[in-house]
Amino acid sequence: MSEQRFGEWIAIRTHEDGRVAELVLDRPKAMNAVSTELGRSIAEATAALSADRTVRAVVLTSTHERAFCVGADLKERNSFTDADLSRQRPHARAAYTGVLELPVPAIAALHGFALGGGFELALSCDIIVADETAVVGLPEVSVGVIPGGGGTQLLPRRVGAARAAELIFSARRVAAAEARELGLVDRLVPAGQDRDEALALAARIAANSPVGLRAAKRALRLGHGLDLRAGLEVEDAAWRTVAFSGDRAEGVAAFNEKRTPDWPGE
């Protein structure tokens, strides 16, 4: 395993010969609160991951024992002028957009508090794994703002408009078992096993065609919300990018020869 740092509080650790990248939130003294610097580092790290053709899956984790991420750094913002807040906004948007637009499958591994912008980082991933200690929620209206990291758009896509409205308007926190029942998280595991479960799932994903994974994610993301006819056109365009690729030829050959594919990734 190798590690690359982005600023003081973000690291990328590689697994599975570089095919799985672990994006690590490592600001334990602030429970990974998203400051201007942390947001900038997330944007830089996700840009590097998006450009790395070796990576086939990303896992978003935390080093803090009791929190994934508690959201925006309100202590930093307490001294902000309106101008300061406006200057910070592009860095915050770049951080969340960077996670959302990762071209490969992304998995969030949650334990403890995942609130506000912290939960929005998870919502920006494709799959959310949570352990039994996880507490999630979007409490922004309780401090006079709204979810600004994609929450008002991503949560309805995950749980439906009415349920998202109830959760956002009430600003309530949701414990792990209810979060799984409501569809706020996808897998629920025993305490302390969220990272291991997410990395194992990422390894399974990363064994598949890199061309296929990127095309499948693109079709899922671009097709969501479209009418069926338009969605099928998105799917067809994605299919064409893989149907004539080296990965398709290798996958068919490996299947017939009963061997593990050696994906060219082209």
Description:
This protein starts with a strand and ends in a 9-residue tail after the last helix. With 266 residues, it is of the alpha/beta class. Strand 1 and strand 2 form a beta hairpin. Helix content is 48%, strand content 18%. The model has no long low-confidence stretch (mean pLDDT 97). The relative contact order is 0.11. It has two domains: 205 residues, 2-enoyl-CoA Hydratase, Chain A, domain 1 (Alpha-Beta Complex); 48 residues, Lyase 2-enoyl-coa Hydratase, Chain  A, domain 2 (Orthogonal Bundle), CATH 1.10.12. The protein has a seven-stranded mixed β-sheet with strand order 1-2-3-4-6-8-11, sandwiched between helices. It has a four-stranded mixed β-sheet with strand order 5-7-9-10.
Low-confidence parts lasting 5 or more residues at pLDDT below 50? none
Termini separation comes to 25 Å
Strand content: 15-25%
Strands, total number = 11
Helicity level:
40-55%
* H/E element sequence: EEEHEEHHEEHEEHHEHEHHHH
Per CATH, the class of the largest domain reads: Alpha Beta
Number of helices: 11
Average pLDDT, all residues: 97
Could you give a short account of the major beta sheet? 7 strands, mixed
Structural class: alpha/beta
Q: What do we call the CATH homologous superfamily of the largest domain?
A: 2-enoyl-CoA Hydratase, Chain A, domain 1
Please name the CATH architecture of the largest domain. Answer: Alpha-Beta Complex
Pfam families: ECH_1
Family: Belongs to the enoyl-CoA hydratase/isomerase family.
Catalytic activity: a 4-saturated-(3S)-3-hydroxyacyl-CoA = a (3E)-enoyl-CoA + H2O; a (3S)-3-hydroxyacyl-CoA = a (2E)-enoyl-CoA + H2O
Keywords: Lipid metabolism, Lyase
